[in-house]
Amino acid sequence: MYVGIDVGTSMVKAAAFDGSGRELAVEARPVGLALHGGVVEQDMEEVYSAVVGVLGALTSRVGEPVELAGLTGQGDGVWLVDKEGRGVRAAASWMDGRAHELLDQWLADGTFETVFRRTGSAMFPGCPGPLLAWFDRYEPKALDAATTALYCKDMVFRRLTGAPVTTDVSDASMPFLDPRTRTYDNRVVELLGLTHRRGLLAPVGDPIATAEARGEGLPAGTRLANGPYDLPACALGAGVTVPGDGLLIVGTCLASLVATTDLDLSGEPAGLYISTDRPGHWLRAMPAMVGTAALDWVLSTTGVHHEDVDALLADTSPGANGVRVLPYFAPSGERAPFVEPRLRAELTGVSLESTKGDLVRATCEGIGFAARHCLAAAGLTGSLAVCGGGTRSPAWMRLLADVLGRPLRVMEGEVGARGAVLAAAERYGVGLDAGVWTEPTSGVEPDPDRAAYYTKAYERYLERLGEARERVRR
Fold it and tell me: Model-level pTM greater than 0.85?
């Protein structure tokens, strides 16, 4: 069997596949997030223990030899480790907002735009540049104690294999990697005031690093590949490799990805170019902070259960009876298709007559409009695949197809883990049929009348968003 490991923000998963890509079994374990005052952190030992736990459960359950394993996980954030790969402090999550004042300063003085023009990376508070600069200013002892500033999957790879610390071009893409040379841009390091911390940046493995497992979770000697991180891994798992084709990941983060061979560093700085395992091929990424976390908050606040969402969506009409949601609930604001650290969610049109169904539909519509905005900015011209937790709701997928006004190739199951296996197979020269492995589960066509309605509603959404952005800048 082939094993894909996906170390997510709130859930760690391991999936087993047979040689044709059929999913045999999945094991999952939740991990905690500590949120306080805009700070979002994770316990590295809890995360690593969850990885070992799901791998042990999966290999015991399936009971077949592991041919090879691929590793992926959440990107960005800062995972400060010692020489053994153990955390010197809690990991700062990609959702962290503590560095927003530094980002505000860089937005004002032009540093933000300069970095984008050099690397194609529009920084946000939870990416390594601002976070490392914040630690250097306010918690320098943590940096002094660390050997390397890793990403999530890199910490796990180091612990599972004992191999030297490394990252890959996908994780390194934000914000220090030059996408043309596929090496760190030292001028960017200098612009962020981090030259004296340059040694903390992990060496870039290009192609992705490989090593054998030491026996924790995976049998000793199992071949393991480190990367890419979850966004490009999902693109691989969904078969999004042809320029113009796109992927929408409806997860904690609403990520829009479009395959491209064009590197355009002009226009409004937003999102990033993720380097892939093929030089000259990138993913134009608009990973919005908005996502299923916004819907989860609304469901929790209204007391609605996830299993009731489909029925509520079916019982409400497009437009949610006048209720509208700008779904920017993240404490660090928004990062794509624009950067606005102080932007927050807005609910309008609510009255005593509004129902729970109106609030749920309005939130789903708002997330759909945000996705449409991101996909347009990323340059989608071809087919669109969709994956993530949101695909479990057929009614939401129908709504999403209507809001986007285009057909959806729905990819269910562990798409990121699937992509991690395909990346590992490529690295080890194992002949897996990527076309068979990436067949969609189903397809959803938009309703022409509803799609026409939402095209007009989307224009009104953009107007409200523009007004909200103006307000937070005052």
Answer: yes
**What span, in angstroms and rounded, lies between the C-alpha atoms of 455 and 392?**
25
Mean pLDDT of the chain: 95
pLDDT band, residue 296 (cuts 50/70/90): very high
Measuring CA to CA, which residue among 200, 214, 203, 263 is closest to residue 69?
Answer: 214
Confidence of residue 143 (pLDDT cuts 50, 70, 90): very high
Whole-angstrom distance, CA of residue 338 vs CA of residue 368:
16
Under 8 Å CB-to-CB from 333, ≥6 apart: which residues? 97, 100, 124, 125, 289, 339, 340, 341, 342, 343, 344
In this structure, are residues 163 and 209 in contact, taking their beta carbons and an 8 Å threshold?
yes
Bridge partner list, 178:
183
State residue 120 phi and psi, 5-degree precision.
75, 20
Q: Which residues contact 308 (CB under 8 A, 6 or more apart)?
A: none
Residues 6+ apart with CB under 8 A from 403: 365, 368, 369, 371, 372, 451, 454, 458
What pLDDT band is residue 474 in, cutting at 50, 70 and 90? Answer: confident
Question: Model confidence over 374-431: pLDDT tens digits?
Answer: 999 999 999 999 998 889 899 999 999 999 999 999 999 999 999 999 999 999 999 9
Q: Do the strands 282-288 and 272-275 form a parallel or antiparallel pair, or are they unpaired?
A: antiparallel
Specify the pLDDT at position 292.
87
Compute the average pLDDT of residues 276-292: 92
Give the tokens for residue 461: 């959404």
Query: Mean per-residue pLDDT for 218-232?
Result: 96
Q: Which residue has the tokens 């995360």?
A: 47
Cα-to-chain-centroid distance, residue 362: 23
